[in-house]
Design a protein that fits this description.
alpha/beta; elongated; Rossmann fold; 5-stranded parallel beta sheet; 4 domains; 20 helices; 20 strands; Methyltransferase, Cobalt-precorrin-4 Transmethylase, Domain 2; single chain
């Protein structure tokens, strides 16, 4: 019998970017993924399409799968010869019961590996601006579970030792027992004026922090309805938060933003949003693919010497044109004598990666701007080649034709419906978990509306801000019933980011 293998993987404290590289590799190669409640759903998107997902979440008042059942799932799936990744919040060996799962695997002779994760005991306080050690305050810290039955006569915790130690105390999963924790610390000698911080959903867009002392933290938490999951930090280092908090002060902190660009391009916008404190969710509603027929593009490439200008209106046009040029056994030498015009700085940079200089970049990044830029630079003897999407606006071809300027438009690529997770997108919209949806082209708008359906569009998008990269995209959005809250003044990704920042300021 072919026995599989189990990876016991820590997914970190919540922010998916705090996942280790090895842990991500384990997700990608898994046949079966068994994940916990506190694992970021964005990590699950990295699993293979055929991967079996099993939810083993545990809540304070009930468990989807009990620990013994989880152990048995790991054993059974591995005995079927499958690669199993057991994905746990934080670190699997820090109150993650990873040791128990490993023992079950050893008992059945199943090979396994442990992939450590960043523990929330350190990361969550750090995201709240609280270092767990500081030489001016403490040189030690202790991590204590909050799931022990502290009120038993024979507690498993030596409260007299812990309370009187000078180090920082960190309680994981301790909100349910917070009154008992405070009571035991005070009764065993910890001063009532000792600072305390509670950090809920640390490292995520939902992070929330409240502070107080052992004397008042229980009432403060109760008054603010502050619940789990939260990390409890006790010690003088809590006072450093006043000057060291960095995460919650970012301009887009707490904002969840849907990015609808193609998956190959979404990363640039997502990274910029997250660097400003936002939480970007990628829902690629479009995919960029080759044209149905390469014939027109191939014929134009064979006749490049007939043209005087090469016009690119997008990065996609650049990439697919030069890719096809190479596939036909040609290179940039075929462009000798051609002048190049690009719409926007990103398109210009894409051309420059091929060691070519751009002759003309319109001030306004749309067709109308191209016409203005070409004013006085063209004659009826000029011929322009425009490799673009199969479906696009006809403003530029029509107006150049009216001026008697020959323009040959050839499809270099096309946009089709992307592989966005429809169910998750609708779930997040219906539960009001998204603050904003960004659109970077008319096709992203059209496909977004087609994906979720016009019949429920108004209800789902209610309260969600719409950010558009420019007036053409905005016009498409409005025509489909969307209210545009933000429109970039400069029709670029950086312009869109600036528009979002200005809106929230």
């Amino acid at each position: 019998m072919n026995i599989g293998k189990v990876f016991l993987v820590g997914s970190g404290p919540g922010d998916p970017k705090l996942m280790t590289i090895k842990g991500m590799d384990c997700i990608k190669q898994a046949d079966v993924l068994v994940y916990d409640r506190l694992v970021s759903k964005r990590l699950l998107a990295n699993a293979r399409p055929d991967c079996e997902l099993i939810y083993g979440g545990k809540y304070p008042d009930h468990h989807i799968l009990r620990q013994g059942e989880i152990n048995q799932v790991l054993v059974d799936k591995a005995l079927e010869g499958k690669v199993v990744t057991r994905l746990k919040g934080g670190d699997p060996f820090v109150f993650g019961r990873g040791g128990e799962e490993a023992e079950a695997l050893v008992k059945h002779g199943i090979p396994f590996e442990v992939v450590p994760g960043i523990t929330s005991a350190i990361a969550v306080p750090a995201y709240a601006g609280i270092p767990v050690t500081h030489r001016d305050f403490t040189t030690s810290f202790a991590v204590v579970t909050g799931h022990l039955k502290y009120d038993k006569a024979e507690s498993e915790i030596r409260w007299d030792k812990i309370a009187q130690a000078h180090g920082t105390l960190i309680f994981l999963m301790g909100m349910e027992k917070l009154p008992i924790i405070v009571e035991q610390l005070v009764q065993n000698g910890r001063g009532e004026d000792t600072p305390v911080a509670l950090v809920r959903w640390g490292t995520t867009a939902d992070q929330r922090t409240i502070t107080g002392t052992l004397q008042d933290i229980v009432e403060t938490a109760k008054a603010q309805n502050f619940g789990s999951p939260a990390v409890v930090v006790v010690g003088e280092v809590v006072n450093l938060r006043q000057k060291l908090q960095w995460f919650e002060g970012k301009p887009l902190f707490g904002k969840r933003v849907a990015v609808t660009r193609a998956r190959t391009q979404a990363g640039v916008l997502a990274d910029k949003l997250e660097s400003l404190g936002g939480e970007a969710w990628e829902f690629p509603v479009i995919e960029i693919v080759p044209p149905v027929d390469f014939g027109p593009l191939d014929q134009a490439i064979q006749r490049l010497s007939e043209f005087s200008w090469l016009l690119f209106t997008s990065v996609n046009g650049v990439e697919f044109f030069f890719r096809r040029l190479k596939q036909l056994g040609k290179d940039i030498r075929q462009l000798a004598g051609l002048k190049i015009c690009t719409i926007g700085p990103a398109t210009r940079k894409a051309v420059e990666t091929f060691h070519l200089l751009v002759d003309l970049v319109p001030r306004e990044f749309r067709a109308e701007g191209v016409l203005e830029a070409f004013d006085g630079k063209l004659t009826t003897a000029d011929r322009i080649l425009l490799p673009r999407a199969e479906v696009a606006r006809e403003v530029l071809p029509e107006r150049l034709a009216a001026l008697g300027i020959p323009l040959e438009v050839v499809p270099a690529y096309r946009t089709v419906q992307g592989q966005a997770e429809k169910e998750r997108l609708i779930e997040m919209l219906s539960q009001k978990q998204l603050d904003m949806v960004t659109f970077t082209s008319s096709s992203t708008v059209t496909n977004f509306v087609q994906l979720i359906g016009k019949d429920q569009l108004t209800e789902l998008i209610s309260g969600v801000k719409i950010a558009s990269i420019g007036p053409i995209t905005s016009a498409t959005a409005r025509s489909l019933g969307l209210n545009v809250d933000i429109e970039a003044e400069e029709y670029t990704i950086d312009g869109l980011i600036q528009g979002i920042l200005d809106y929230y300021r």
